[in-house]
Amino acid sequence: MQVDFHGREITVKLVYYGPALSGKTTNLQAIHQLVTAETAGRLMTLETRDDRTLFFDLLPLTFSGGKNLQVRFKLFTVPGQVMHNATRRLVLQGADGTAFIADSQKTETKANQQAFLNMRENLSENGIDPDSHPVVIQFNKRDLPGVRTDAEIDRMASKGREPVFKAVAIRGVGVIETFLGLTELTWRHLEAKHQLHEKFGLEPEEFLSTVRERLGIGRAAE
Question: All domains of the chain, ordered by start, with CATH?
């Protein structure tokens, strides 16, 4: 988290991690399309010839925190290919929260497991405790054949600490819910660590309610 006291701006870094072609970039593209121009900035992406992310994508989202305070979320993706691990680790530096995007297809189970372990290793390499770091998991590509059933995913979710979401990112399904889940988990972690309410008069529930409203999700959808 970065704080600009003079400009009254807080910047929170969220990283979308996962194996190659799991839908990390698609998540950011969907968010960019679903939120208003007032909230989302320009989506920057760098791709290779086969449409895979080479370095990273970046999407800034800005919300009002009240009392002339702006809260900016910077959403990054990492490249999925193993050969770009140094870049993955670099992008993960200073991350406040991470969304792990898994491929729901059973054939991608090993790739998901390897990428998840790699994420934890890179968090540790960056001096971030992977056991306390805010992480949510999204099982994407729910519309494809050969995917894990909802019951299987629910069983896996019950065994872990991370909130789990199901998505079809290419259609925008489950994308906002994943982002909101990560935002809430990360914000509560930052509040406990930095006492943002005390320093900025930023009431956590009030701010998160504002984020929900701007994303088109009211309290009834919690």
Answer: 2-221 (3.40.50.300)
Cα 78 to Cα 47, 52, 153, distances in angstroms: 11, 10, 24
pLDDT in tens, 152-206: 999 999 999 999 999 999 999 999 999 999 999 999 999 999 998 888 888 888 8
Tell me how far apart the alpha carbons of residues 67 and 63 are, in angstroms, rounded to a whole number: 12
> What distance in Å separates the CA atoms of residue 101 and residue 31, rounded to the nearest whole number?
14
pTM for this entry:
0.91
The tokens for 29 are 């593209």
Burial class (CB in 10 A: 0-12, 13-18, 19+), 195: exposed
What whole-number distance in Å separates Cα of residue 3 and Cα of residue 167?
A: 33
CA angle 147, 53, 157 (to 5 degrees): 35
Sign of CA dihedral 104, 109, 115, 118: positive
β-partners of residue 75 are 14, 59
Q: What is the 3-state secondary structure (H, E, C) of the chain?
A: CEEECCCCEEEEEEEEECCCCCCHHHHHHHHHHHCCCCCECCCEEEECCCCCEEEEEEEEEEEEEECCEEEEEEEEECCCCHHHHHHHHHHHCCCCEEEEEEECEHHHHHHHHHHHHHHHHHHHHCCCCCCCCCEEEEEECCCCCCECCHHHHHHHHHHCCCCEEECEHHHCECHHHHHHHHHHHHHHHHHHHHCHHHHHCCCHHHHHHHHHHHCCCCHHHC
Residue 45 amino acid letter? T
